[in-house]
Amino acid sequence: MNLKGRDFLKLLDFTSEEILYLLDLAAELKNKKKQGIPVDTLRGKNVALIFEKTSTRTRCAFEVAAHDLGMGSTYLDPTGSQIGKKESIADTARVLAGMYDGIEYRGFEQSIVEELAKYSKVPVWNGLTNEFHPTQMLADLLTIREHFGFLKGIKLTYMGDARYNMGNSLMVACAKMGMHFTACTTQKYFPAKELVEECEKIAEQTGGSITLTEDAMTGTKDVDVVYTDVWVSMGEPDEVWEERIRELSPYQVNKKIMDNAGEKAIFMHCLPAFHDLKTKIGAQMGERFGITEMEVTDGVFESEKSVVFDEAENRMHTIKAVKAATL
After folding, report:
1. Catalytic one among 6, 59, 133, 244?
2. Helix axes 134-148, 308-326, angle to 10 degrees
C-alpha cells in the first residue's frame, strides 16, 4: 500500500484498509525496536514540529520517532513560531515545506492544519486539533488489538465530554474499524449531530455501531473498553471546572463502572489524568471542590485493567509508522 506524500489530518480521510496498514507497520516497527534492529531509513530528511499547544507524549513521540528513522527535527513551541501572528498559515506552510520533508501541527482549529496541508508541498500531520486527534487513535487501536487480538466487534464506551477531539476521533475510529462506539454522558456533551450521522453511515458498511446514552450503567454494561479524558481541555477557562465537575461526576470511571463492564474490560485514557492530587491542577481542584479524583479514580487508574502507559508508548510507534508511510 502506497501512502507516500499523503497528509495525516483525520481518520475520516483514510479507508479501513489504510488504517490497518498503518497499524501493521507500527507493530512491525515496534517489534524491530524491541529487538534493537535499526530502522533509520529516512536519514537526511528533517521534520518541523509546530506546537501551539504543548504536550509531553506528542512531542516526545514525534521527536523519538524522527530520531529512530534517522531524521532531524525542529521543535517550535508557542513562542518559537510566527504562525498566525506575523506570518499567515499559508506562508508558514510554504516556508517550512521549502526546508523540511514533513510538518506536524498541534494546536487549535482543524481548519489550521487543513490550511497548512493545502499550501504545503510536503506531508502534514495532525498532532491534535480541537476537533480531531488521529495519532492518538492509531495508538489506541494498536493497544486494543495488542490486548484482545482483534478490533472488529470490540465494544468501546467513552465517558465524559464527547464533543471535542477525543470523543469525535474515537467515534470515527470505531466506525472505520467495525467497532461499537458508545458516548456515555449527558445530552449536552454528545458529539455533533452531523458527525454522528456521518459515522453511522460508515458503521453501516463496516459492521460497527454508534450509540449515545445518558445512563452510565447501560452504557458500560459488558463492554470491552472504558475510555475517558480530562473534563476540561487545554485553553478552556478555569470557570468551567465547577460546571464540569458537577455535570460529569456521574460519569467518573470508578470500580462500580469497571465491575459493570466485566472482567475482560480494560481502562484507557489519553493522559494526562487527574486521578489523584499529585498535580498542580489536581491539588487546586481538590482544595476548591473537596475532591481527590476526577474523571477516573486512582484505584482504576492503577489497576491491572489500566493500559494507559501501553497507550502512551504506542503513540511513538504509531507516529513512526505514519512518518515512514507518508515519507
Report:
1. 133
2. 120
Of 7, 229, 244, 269, which is the active-site residue?
Answer: 229
Q: Could you tell me how many residues make up the chain?
A: 327
35 is catalytic: no
Catalytic residue among 7, 68, 136, 275: 136
> Does the annotation count 133 as an active-site position?
yes
SS (H, E, C) 264-306: CCEEEECCCCCCCCCCHHHHHHHHHHCCCCCCECHHHHCCCCE
**Which residue out of 68, 270, 275, 317 is catalytically annotated?**
270
Give the Cα-Cα-Cα angle 234, 315, 103 (nearest 5 degrees). 75
Contact 125, 99 (CB under 8 A): no
- Look up the pTM and report it: 0.97
Q: Quick check: is 136 catalytic?
A: yes
In DSSP terms, which residues pair with 156 in a beta bridge? 181, 225
Lowest mean pLDDT among 79-88, 125-134, 279-288: 79-88
Calculate the CA dihedral of residues 221, 275, 154, 129 and round it to 10 degrees.
130
Can 110 be counted among the known catalytic residues? no
- pLDDT tens-digit readout, 76-119: 998 877 787 788 999 999 999 999 999 999 999 999 999 999 99
Catalytic residue, candidates 106, 145, 180, 317: 106
